């Protein structure tokens, strides 16, 4: 039988003390990164396995971060949170944590799951996604003093919603960049396909488009359509907008799902547009330009211009905020930390 590898074996190979190995695995923030990496290489080489039960008894922590798996919708935009989850798992592992996954259909079901998980597995903290107005989950975690961070801003205006740490991507900045790109390309009448009013994320993305058009002297009134998030819905809404007498020549979309539907509509017969004639030559017909949001694999496959979210960076910030909370480094007199990241425009054939 193979002899069990001990913490002393790891310390000997890494050239450090046993306490340093323990710190590298249990409290990585107190160890220099170079030393921590040396310990981790020794752990991997020797195949050392931490006794999680003993660690929890010693530190009072499970080293678990819990997060919900989002339901699969149309197979397009669901990939966004899959990539975030991958980044979260990697960032958590670098800080000595593991990710615990769970499912829930709505807020109340998720709150019920919080209670079950805290009783059975005692996760140290939660990461919440898909924040929205009237979010029951954040209020419950705050009331029960459970550490958490959200990937998404608190959209409600009440003070309780604003009293927690969060990381988000600036959707308004993204759609503003997309709209400026189209204006620079010569478009003036730029439509918007979004979600029904009341979605914090959707309203934020619409605001960036509307603000940028208005700044360019174009009235955005009447140039947007709201629908549910699906390819067929996007195609129908785009047809409605493009077949109107508004003269729309480009579309900014709240998601890649709607943009893919818009792309189908924009390539329909009779919906091309003709730019004004330049000196010395005629103008050829051009297809309607389309820009999506999220830069999904489908966008790459079909040549759809889209806004890419910095998901790995967002995940790393979530873990950093959580470890600050869990290690007691957050100043109780200061407001909760938050991070707002900007997406980047990935230009392809559709724009």
Kindly list the characteristics that best describe this protein.
351 residues; alpha/beta; 434 Repressor (Amino-terminal Domain); Rossmann fold; six-stranded parallel sheet; 12 strands; 44% helix; elongated; transcription regulation; DNA-binding transcription factor activity; Peripla_BP_I
Structure description:
By secondary structure, the protein is α/β, with parallel strands linked by helices. The protein folds into 3 domains: 7-50, 434 Repressor (Amino-terminal Domain); 64-168 and 311-340, Rossmann fold, CATH 3.40.50.2300; 171-276 and 283-308, Rossmann fold, CATH 3.40.50. Helices cover 44% and strands 15% of the residues. The protein is built from 13 helices and 12 strands. The strands form 2 sheets. Strands 2-1-3-4-5-11 form a 6-stranded parallel sheet, sandwiched between helices. α12 (297-302) links the parallel β9 (289-293) and β10. α1 (7-14) packs across α2 (18-26) and α1 (7-14) packs across α3. The longest helix has 17 residues, at 78-94. The protein is elongated, with a radius of gyration of 25 Å. 38% of the residues are buried.
């Amino acid at each position: 039988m193979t002899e069990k590898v001990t913490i002393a074996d790891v310390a000997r190979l890494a050239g450090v003390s046993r306490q340093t190995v323990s710190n590298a695995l249990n409290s990585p923030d107190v160890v220099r990164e170079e030393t921590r990496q040396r310990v981790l290489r020794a752990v991997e080489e020797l195949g050392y396995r931490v006794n999680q039960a003993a660690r929890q008894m010693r530190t009072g922590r499970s080293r678990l971060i819990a997060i919900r798996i989002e339901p699969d919708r149309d197979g397009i935009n669901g990939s966004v949170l899959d990539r975030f989850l991958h980044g979260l798992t990697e960032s958590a592992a670098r800080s000595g944590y593991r990710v615990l996954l769970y499912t829930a259909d709505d807020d109340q079901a998720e709150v019920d799951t919080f209670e079950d998980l805290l009783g059975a597995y005692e996760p140290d903290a939660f990461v919440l996604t898909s924040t929205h107005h009237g979010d029951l989950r954040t209020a419950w975690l705050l009331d029960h003093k459970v550490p958490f961070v959200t990937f998404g801003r608190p959209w409600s205006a009440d003070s309780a919603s604003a009293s927690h740490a969060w990381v988000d991507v600036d959707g308004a900045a993204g759609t503003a960049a997309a709209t400026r790109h189209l204006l620079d390309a010569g478009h003036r009448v730029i439509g918007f396909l979004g979600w029904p009013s009341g979605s914090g994320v959707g309203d934020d993305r619409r605001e960036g488009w509307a603000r940028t058009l208005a700044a360019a002297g174009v009235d955005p009134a009447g140039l947007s359509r709201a629908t549910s998030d699906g390819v067929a819905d996007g195609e129908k809404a785009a047809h409605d907008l493009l077949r109107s007498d508004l003269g729309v020549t480009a579309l900014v979309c709240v998601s890649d799902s709607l943009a893919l539907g818009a792309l189908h509509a924009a390539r329909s017969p009779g919906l091309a547009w003709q730019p004004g004639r330049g000196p010395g030559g005629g103008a050829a017909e051009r297809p309607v330009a389309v820009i999506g949001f999220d830069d999904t694999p489908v966008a790459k496959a079909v040549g759809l211009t889209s806004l890419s979210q910095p998901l790995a960076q967002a995940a790393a910030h979530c873990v950093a905020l959580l470890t600050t909370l869990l290690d007691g480094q957050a100043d109780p007199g200061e407001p909760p930390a938050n991070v707002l990241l900007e997406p980047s425009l990935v230009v392809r054939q559709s724009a």
